[in-house]
Write a structure and sequence with these properties.
globular; seven-stranded mixed sheet; Rossmann fold; alpha/beta; 3 domains
Length: 658
Amino acid sequence: MAGLLETIQSPADLRKLTHEQLEQVAHEMRDELVRVLKLRPAHFASNLGVVELCLALHLNFDFSKDRLIWDTGHQIYPHKLVTGRYKQFQGIRTRGGLMGYPNPAESPYDLFMTGHAGCSVSTAMGLKVGDSLTKKTDRHSVAVIGDGALPSGIVFEAFNNAGTLNENLLVILNDNAMSICPRVGALARCLDQARASDFYIDSKRQLRDLLQRVPLVGGAATHLLEQVKDGFKAFLSGGMLFEEFGIRYFGPVDGHDLAGLRRTLAMLKDVKGPVLLHVLTNKGHGVPEACKDPVTFHTPPVIDSVGPSRSILALRKGGSKAYTDAFSAGILSAMKASDNVAVITAAMCQGNKLEKVREEFPTRFFDVGICESHAVAFAAGMAKSGVRPIVDIYSTFLQRSFDQIFQEVALQNLPVTFCLDRAGLTGPDGPTHHGTYDIPYMRLFPNMVVMAPGDEADARPMLDLALEHPGPASIRYPKANLELVERAVAPLEIGVSEVIEWGDDVILIAFGTLLSECVKAASILRSQGLSVGVVNARFCKPIDKSTLSKAISEAAVVITVEEGTLEGGFGSAVLEMANSEGLDSRHLRRLGLPDRFVEHGERNELLESLGLLADGIASTARECLGRHAPARLAEATDTGRSSMSNRESDRRATARPR
């Protein structure tokens, strides 16, 4: 039977439906979320929690002209379902399909491509002021921000500004008591008081009834009653925190009561000045298992089996160990070995797989919330006191602390170890989450050591080396399964690369875990008669001048390979080194991520499209040889053909019947 959801071509269609039909649409939206999770991993619990809020917003506002910003953006799926993207929805998070975050290229209802937390209030305020300046004063501006993003410093900078500008702005605080993991910090405790909602809402009702019966009249009485209400609000909900910024606070209200939300939003549309509406939602609402375990169901594995009432009977079991596993295990071992090692993360305990660390060493594990700048400055203070802090943060999020890496860590030459998880292409999360820029931004600073393991064998030794180093060090590693390149592993020494094999025709220099693809590419090229070497660079800074200068001087073609932007990356560092050493580098080719934002898709799909898997690397090597050493390529091609012909003859002879 055809459903209602598939008939929604735009939010205007929602306004034609009865309340009962809207409840049916909400039901169908949750079914669609479950259907997607049967196909591929996706953000799940956070989207289940905002279905009614999304509908209420689109029913009360016209976002074809009004402004709506979803903070962080991983709860955007219901919004996509009612803004003309239902037919494309099953392809979400696939290459060429819908993005799992807001994307202005998909729809005029998405104004920013948001993927980092905390920026919604600033951008929504900017939109409102911009509309005022351009005489579009009839437009409303709304920001939806989660309680996990609320502690971000930029949010309070925006509140500070909004309270003085006094423009009409509605901030929806979607309070589900969670970030990806349970929220942390003093502000979380303040919000937890408000989540005692039965007590709060019942007490508000009793207070209202009481005040209506008090026989007081005149300004003094009104002032007294306002003081009582404000004091009550401050005691129970922490709303006065926002009021002190000049932002009127309303709530908390039930985020799954669609009718109640519609009434509240209708009332608040006409309130002048900045307003914060505190909405209580349940992350995972509508799926019992997601409600019970919102951490696992934030981005769970694929669903294998679904029971009645959307109960999840089975999730697909995980596969191979990843680089994140190797580094989290290394951090745990380092903390067992020394009481002086501590770890700091920014609301990503689960993503960085630090649960065991948190359990075994609660006094040396610090989750500071979505506050990366604070995390790095906090680590600097710890290092100055003699502790060896590890800052374990995704590459794309560590960008938010650029100034603290400079001022508080590198400038002071403090021994802070940075573990940059998700460095490189993160796959379906797309351009907001790809760890593309950490090589340039980390290698800029004096005193910083910049490393990347070539494979699993390098991972633990690099962590140990960083913890022994007297200054700051960074280690980048991808969201990928562990690989091991067969070789006699050379000991790790700062600034020294590992030569796996030397070659006269081509030398491939890998910085990071594309080393295995370089080894495969070398094998392809050798089968074609070429002399090919492979170098595991290990370090971008300090760079191995001796080995890399030798490669540039002796090989016909040198190719650097990295899973990071070419602008300012490892290949650029090699070119800079060649220039400073007076070497001719015209035969050096850099392979990496192009000067554009790479779309979402499976990691290997993206790497293949960018020529960063073995066949693409080998093809680039042949192309470069044809340009810089055509005679060698021609000779090798003839040799390769002869070799292949001999092997084919041998195969046919072996296959002949006796």
